[in-house]
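Bumping my old thread because nobody answered last time. Still need a sequence for this structure:
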């Protein structure tokens, strides 16, 4: 089965549409959405409705910190720009969408795979995997051979050898990577809705459970339209401009 893994959608309709269309072309049989469905972007209603529809058809979905910020009682710290978008997003959503977010889990385990938004050691605390040290901590915190993780907006792959040594490398898009069962893996697909590595193309990945092959993708999309929607909604223009620049 081919699983399409998308994370950090950030209410970016144009990016999500492009990624889903590409995943359908690859004949993905199941989908995993690793959180931060909303925040930053101008289409939270459409993005949530789309994810909700996929979940009804058997997809997995997790809660991210921007999603959790919409719920009553959330006290996490956010910068003023992110908080402004959260407040705006609250005014857009229907009660059933907020209810959907409230029931999303922090982690999902399936066979030998773990899906989380932030990390495996404390997914509810939203700590980042910024490098080898945090990646090692996360891989040691689970028995799963493969962890798929969001929160970080740059595509990266970590692996832990039998001797306990952790390696890190930046994947090349569209080049299949066999994930040996002799190692543990931590896969960060990168952000579909707000890439930050200088490349504005949306990020997502697929994993073939039969061949154990992982593939990263970069998908061009209409970032200009997504940018203009952000500005027209009265949200901080910088959030739109960064989509065009990919930073």
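Sorry it took so long. Here it is:
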């Amino acid at each position: 089965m081919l699983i399409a893994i998308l994370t950090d959608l950030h209410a970016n309709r144009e990016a999500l549409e492009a990624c889903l269309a590409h995943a359908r072309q690859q004949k993905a049989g199941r989908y995993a959405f690793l959180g931060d469905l909303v925040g930053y972007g101008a289409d939270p209603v459409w993005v949530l409705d789309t994810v909700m529809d996929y979940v009804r058809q058997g997809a997995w979905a997790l809660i991210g910190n921007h999603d959790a910020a919409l719920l009553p009682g959330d006290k996490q710290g956010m910068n003023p720009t992110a908080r402004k978008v959260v407040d705006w997003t609250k005014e857009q959503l229907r009660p059933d969408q907020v209810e959907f977010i409230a029931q999303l889990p922090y982690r999902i385990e399936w066979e030998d795979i773990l899906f989380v938004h932030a990390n495996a050691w404390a997914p509810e605390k939203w700590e980042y995997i910024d490098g080898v040290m945090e990646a090692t901590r996360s891989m040691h915190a689970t028995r799963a051979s493969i962890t798929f993780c969001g929160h970080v907006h740059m595509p990266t792959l970590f692996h832990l050898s039998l001797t306990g040594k952790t390696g890190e490398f930046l994947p090349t898009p569209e080049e299949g990577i066999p994930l040996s069962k002799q190692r543990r893996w931590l896969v960060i697909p990168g952000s579909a809705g707000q890439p930050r590595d200088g490349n504005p193309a949306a990020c997502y990945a697929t994993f073939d459970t039969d061949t154990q092959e992982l593939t990263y993708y970069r998908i061009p999309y209409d970032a200009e339209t997504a940018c203009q929607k952000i500005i027209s909604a009265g949200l901080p223009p910088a959030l739109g401009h960064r989509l065009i620049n990919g930073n």
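The domain at 2-245 is CATH 3.60.21.10 (Purple Acid Phosphatase; chain A, domain 2). Let me know if any region looks off to you.
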